[in-house]
Structures are given as structure tokens and as C-alpha cells.
Write a structure and sequence with these properties.
Oligomer: single chain
Radius of gyration: 19 Å
Order of helices and strands: HEEHEEHEHHEEEEEEEE
Shape: elongated
Length: 224
């Protein structure tokens, strides 16, 4: 059954459109395709968990951009997904951006519980976390908080039954199929598996965010 893509595209002000896809994987495919196959008039592409926001240089591009978005969505819907469609940001992600390595001390309070939930040993959880290239699907919640996805989703665990009132800056966590590093101290309900000293957000750095949409991330065991 063909999807009515026009119905999935809604105006977001006069110079933006919001595409609702209801699943992270087609979001990443669409954002990646928009970066590779640029549509005239599109200024930026901002992926989220289940949506993609497309901003335009001018309201005059609206009709043409909508038409091309519908055509692109239809084509992607009929194409088999590629093994890795990871570049999910236009204008904010250089083509040659290196893999970001994040050294982690796997000392998180929830690491034993994560191992139990996954029916794995603690060393096996660590090996799985460090043994894949994670991709930043989108950034949200707090500046520098990247929602990282893995190709196989094998470390998918639920959020904690009760959130903590304070999670230390640099905490490495898992929840709902994502991994993340807390860029600042904040309440949160993710499962804590480790800590890092890397600053995920620094206003004195250009750009301030260490991880951006589309970034590739590799976690490594800290030697400290």
C-alpha cells in the first residue's frame, strides 16, 4: 500500500516543513538522502527521533521543495535500505569528519543491571558497547546531548523505573536503543554504565558540541 507522503509533510512556519516518519531508521535515511541529493532552496535538515525538519531559504521555494520531498520519500520507500545511511545533517557535518573516540571508565552504577537485562556478562556489555561504531541520529534534551544509535541495536534496554534527581556530567548511559553522554549534570532516567572526562559541550570550543547529527562515535575503554 502506497503512503500519502503529502499528508506526512506539514508547514512549520512559512520557511520550514516538518516530515513525520514515526521511526528513527527512515528519518536517518531521509536526512542522509537530503544531504547527498540537495534540493534547491533547502537551507538545513534537522533530524529528530521520528521527524525531519527542513528549513528553506525563502517561502518562494515551498511548492517545489514539497514536490521534491514527496518524490524523494516515495523513492526511498521503494528502495531497499542501505547498510549504513549515517550522514544525517546538511551544512553542519563535514564529509571528512573523523570518528570521535570517547574514552570511558565502565564504572556506572547500572552496569550490572544492564548486563542482567541483556542476559550478558558485564565484560560482554562493555565489549558490545566498544565494539561498534555509533552514529548520532539527532541532538536534543540538552546542548551537546547526542542520541547515538548502533547498527544492530543489541544494547537496547529500558529506562530506569524511577529517574535520578541528578546525574553527573560525563555519565555514559543507555536507554531505549540509544546511548548518550550527559553533557552536564541533570536529572535523568537512563541506565548509567560509565563515565568520561571528555566535554561534550564547551562554549569556548568551535563548534561547541563534540558530537553533532551524523557524527560517528567509538567508545573505548579508558586507560586511566
Amino acid at each position: 500500500m502506497d503512503i500519502d507522503w503529502n499528508a506526512r509533510i506539514r508547514p512549520a512556519g512559512d520557511r520550514a516543513m516538518l516530515i513525520t516518519l514515526d521511526d528513527p531508521r527512515p528519518v536517518q535515511r531521509l536526512a542522509s538522502a537530503l544531504r547527498v541529493h540537495a534540493i534547491a532552496g533547502v537551507e538545513d535538515v534537522l533530524p529528530a527521533a521520528e521527524t525531519v525538519l527542513v528549513t528553506m531559504h525563502s517561502v518562494s521555494y515551498g511548492v517545489q521543495v514539497r514536490r521534491e520531498l514527496v518524490a524523494l520519500l516515495d523513492r526511498l520507500d521503494h528502495e531497499p535500505p542501505q547498510a549504513d545511511s549515517a550522514d544525517v545533517s546538511r551544512g553542519t557535518l563535514p564529509d571528512d569528519e573523523p570518528v570521535v573516540e570517547i574514552p570511558v571508565r565502565y564504572d556506572g552504577a547500572d552496569l550490572p543491571e544492564v548486563a542482567r537485562l541483556l542476559d550478558l556478562s558485564v565484560p560482554a556489555v562493555i565489549a558490545a558497547h566498544t565494539g561498534t561504531i555509533w552514529r548520532c541520529a539527532f541532538v536534543g534534551f540538552a546542548p551537546g546531548f547526542g542520541y547515538l544509535t548502533s547498527p544492530d541495536g543489541r544494547l537496547t534496554v529500558p529506562r530506569r523505573a524511577s529517574a535520578r534527581s541528578a546525574i553527573p556530567v560525563g555519565s555514559v548511559a543507555l536507554a531505549g536503543g540509544y546511548s548518550a553522554v550527559y553533557p552536564r549534570g541533570t536529572p535523568g532516567g537512563w541506565q548509567l554504565i560509565g563515565t568520561t572526562d571528555l566535554r561534550m559541550w564547551a562554549v569556548d570550543r568551535d563548534p561547541p558540541a563534540l558530537v553533532r547529527a551524523g557524527s560517528a562515535i567509538r567508545f573505548v575503554v579508558s586507560e586511566e
